[in-house]
């Protein structure tokens, strides 16, 4: 059992802290936000994540996890300090490292015994060399402090599972002491450990995320071509997936990738390459395809309808994927403002993301358009002229083709997640546009009338 401190209680830090506690270590999570710390002490998770709250309560009751704003006392006695603070994207695509620098300085001023600083945050290659130097510059006591890289690969919605049962643990160290200590900390997880040097570990994180982003953008590119040549991208993906070298995951064409990692990490790696005078063409292509993909359906709909002015538009799903309340880089954030600008009356449904969305786009009038948040898909669809599907929530997948036909004024559906078999929509007479599949067109009468 080791004493672990964790800096930052966002997705990365809190999940890591709770999982280390679950594995028997003694963990103190540090955050600057007093209110958040009190909330966590009372057993409430600040983020929506499967099993997290349950494990927070269990390990708190067992005395294995504590939360504090007092970083000095947490860092002082720790064998290892994990850093999980954010590295937000800056306007030029580079990562903002100021939170890491703040924590590094606090560590340097607090530690009184040898300790390993483990950076979990995604940082540009070479950053951890600088963090180690920075800590040694500010170190107050005569102790050994080394920095290791230990990137995480958790996906939102399954973060606890992804940590406890990770496919691999990447540890990047520069000494046997650091390698052995980190290996010992992870020993109770009983998972495959890949031990490399620090820069390779930093690179593995970017290379993995960007590869997945590339895979999605590739399928979106192929999807757009499928539409033009009369192929069906889902059938194409199925055929490809039988090849083990390709695999079956992350082949779903759609409205582009969002979230806190893929958009940020693709731009960051491109930026790193640029700094080294290298043109990282593949990643650049993935970014470009994704940018266009997000508004693909909106553009199709605008061409079809000419204007959204005065139309009731149902929006199903706002978050970047189901199972999270996170809106970062979600397609809805690009499309809803375009619809509002065009004078649409948007009726938006999302089982958990609506509150966050309403902070950016409050309910009510926005210029010529308006937005209303509704509690059910039925309310969104009732008398709507057009429907956009942005997130494949269970509640959205439960809507039958007949419901679009019966509830909407004009059943015109733009599906960014390819939820329905095209033939099912065709069978009930819904005009249906999706990604990389043939559209079901309807005879256009003077049918798209305002709902007002
Ligand atoms: C991702 C990685 O999966 C994780 O390993 C990494 O550490 C952080 O980034 P996350 O962003 O939570 O996790 O979600 P993920 O499930 O990977 O989806 C990201 C985006 O890609 C979503 O917008 C999703 O809708 C989209 N996506 C995913 C597709 O469009 N098609 C696919 O086939 C898969």
Automatic annotation (TrEMBL):
Source superkingdom: Bacteria
EC code(s) of this entry: 1.1.1.22
Name by which UniProt lists this protein: UDP-glucose 6-dehydrogenase
Active-site residues, record numbering mapped to chain: 261
Gene Ontology MF terms: NAD binding; UDP-glucose 6-dehydrogenase activity
Family stated for the protein in its record: Belongs to the UDP-glucose/GDP-mannose dehydrogenase family.
Keyword presence, Membrane: no
Metabolic or biological pathway, per its Swiss-Prot or TrEMBL entry: Nucleotide-sugar biosynthesis; UDP-alpha-D-glucuronate biosynthesis; UDP-alpha-D-glucuronate from UDP-alpha-D-glucose: step 1/1
GO BP terms, alphabetized: polysaccharide biosynthetic process; UDP-glucuronate biosynthetic process
UniProt keyword annotations, A-Z: NAD, Oxidoreductase
InterPro entries given in the database record: 6-PGluconate_DH-like_C_sf, NAD(P)-bd_dom_sf, UDP-Glc/GDP-Man, UDP-Glc/GDP-Man_DH_C, UDP-Glc/GDP-Man_DH_C_sf, UDP-Glc/GDP-Man_DH_dimer, UDP-Glc/GDP-Man_DH_N, UDPglc_DH_bac
Residue numbers binding NAD(+): 31, 36, 87, 122, 264, 328
Residue ranges that the Swiss-Prot or TrEMBL entry lists as coiled coil: none
